[in-house]
Amino acid sequence: MPDGARPGAPRRVVAEGLAVAALLSVFALTIRTGWPLVLLAALALALAGLAIGQAIGRARTPLLVLGIARPDRRVVIMSAIGCALGCVLGMGLRWASDASIFPAAPGAFVLVAAAIGAAEELVYRGYVQGRFAAFGAFPAAAFAALCHAGYKCALFAIPSASDPATGVDLVLLASGTFLGGLAFGALKESARNVLPAVAAHVCFDIVVYGGLSTAPWWVWP
After folding, report:
1. What pLDDT digit, counting tens, does each position of 122-138 carry?
2. Is the preceding peptide bond at 216 cis, omega within 30 degrees of 0?
3. DSSP string for residues in 70-113
4. pTM of the predicted model as reported, rounded to 2 decimal places
């Protein structure tokens, strides 16, 4: 049974997960295209939010739609493991990018970075992975990781018009996001709660982006 769902045909909840993932990828791909396609981005984001909101409204346990359950000792332990994993992955990415392992000092973007990481986990590991739960733990985590990788590639597919040097290796991005998503998905499944995955992603984004004073080009159109 998908997290927080009422009894019913699993096809519907799987379709909901796929629809939300597709809509968010459309949003990511069109958000920087300018008029009039930016209207498509706004519509896609609104429809994704509406779909998630309707699922929450139908559920007997609304928070479970986003993968949030009552914390217990296991959740606390897995959240600590998630924090450590997120920091290690973030340090590894900074090292691979020839940057210092940790940011020199927290920048103005740190809170936004944390919020972005938390929101992505609630959507992909919480909602989308929960929609695929009928297939089993590993397939659900893999589907959610694949959807998240598609979103990331769509987000970075069109470089900033003001800075053509912002091109990203999409193959590397897709593989890294997918593997990281599998790890975060495993945290979620192990704890039966999305909070450890949220902790991991928040720590990762703080380590990677926390030293920035302004948002990267891909955050704001």
Report:
1. 999 999 999 999 899 99
2. no
3. ---HHHHHHHHHHHHHHHHHHHHHHHHTTS-SS-SS--TTHHHH
4. 0.90
